[in-house]
Design a protein that fits this description.
Layout (H helix, E strand, L loop, with lengths): L4 E7 L5 H8 L5 E6 L18 H9 L13 E7 H6 L3 H6 L5 E6 L3 H14 L4 E2 L15 H21 L5 E5 H6 L1 H12 L12 E2 L6 H4 L3 H8 L11
Parallel strand pairs: 1-3, 1-4, 2-3, 4-6
Antiparallel strand pairs: 5-7
Length: 242
């Protein structure tokens, strides 16, 4: 197994980590192998891997990772981890910070209400990903959110982003906005590849993965106005502005 430089994609749920991973995996020298801490992720043939210690899991991710066809000159290997998965496995984040030479790509959605809305929609419909080959054109379901779950999610996002910034050296962390990744994936990829130390490679930035929800928040959150009244004048006012 060749020695490859390690990286990790971090983010709150529904912030484009899967989309970024698909874009990176088109590069011939890069392999990002899905959600290391998700027992149902098909990138990992060993479905008992989560019984291993934190250190053993990281060795699996960065030293004994699954091989991909066509990746004959692999130079960079990574995985992705969402914030709730760290809560399910206390101590893993600290172990991750100690992995040598690790580079971190942090994906942030400017409005966490958008990612919470998307998360609840996916849980309700059971549809987590949508590809261009899918014929189902049904819009995601509308949702109702409580003020408590909004506040908890907003705090969790703030705390997680702060924790990442405080736990790694600044030169080891690159923050990418989900919105920028959607609007100009080529420019974001150029920035990411430069950050990882990967030579630029002429390849398509198109994937079959499709965004599921394009409607605004006030059309998809049934009690949007109620929530807006609650949060107006507070720390999260901007999340409810047009």
């Amino acid at each position: 197994m060749p020695i490859a430089a390690p990286f990790v994609i971090l983010g709150m749920p529904r912030t484009g980590t899967h989309y970024l991973e698909e874009l990176l995996n088109v590069h011939p020298n890069v392999s990002s192998n899905g959600e290391l801490l998700n027992p149902y992720d098909m990138n990992w043939p060993d479905n008992t891997r989560l019984l291993r210690s934190d250190r053993e899991l990281l060795e699996l991710a960065y030293r004994h990772y699954p091989t991909r066809s066509g990746k004959m000159a692999l130079m960079h290997v990574g995985c992705k981890i969402n914030q709730p998965q760290f809560q399910e496995r206390p101590g893993f984040f600290e172990q991750l910070t100690r992995w040598p030479h690790l580079r971190v790509i942090l994906l942030i959605r400017r409005n966490p209400l958008e990612s919470l809305r998307s998360l609840v929609q996916a849980r309700t419909s059971g549809q987590w990903l949508k590809y261009g080959t899918c014929h189902d054109s049904t819009a995601p379901p509308t949702v109702t959110l409580t003020t408590e779950e909004c506040e908890a999610y907003f705090r969790a996002a703030d705390d997680f982003h702060t924790r990442v910034a405080n736990s790694f050296k600044p030169e080891r962390v690159l923050t990418i906005d989900y919105e920028d990744l959607l609007s100009d994936p080529a420019a974001c990829l150029e920035t990411i590849l430069s950050f990882l130390g990967i030579s630029l490679h002429a390849y398509s930035v198109c994937t079959d993965l499709r965004r599921q929800e394009v409607r605004p928040l006030d059309e998809t959150v049934c009690n949007f106005l109620e929530l807006k009244r609650h949060f107006t004048g507070g720390r999260y006012t901007s999340y409810f502005e047009a």
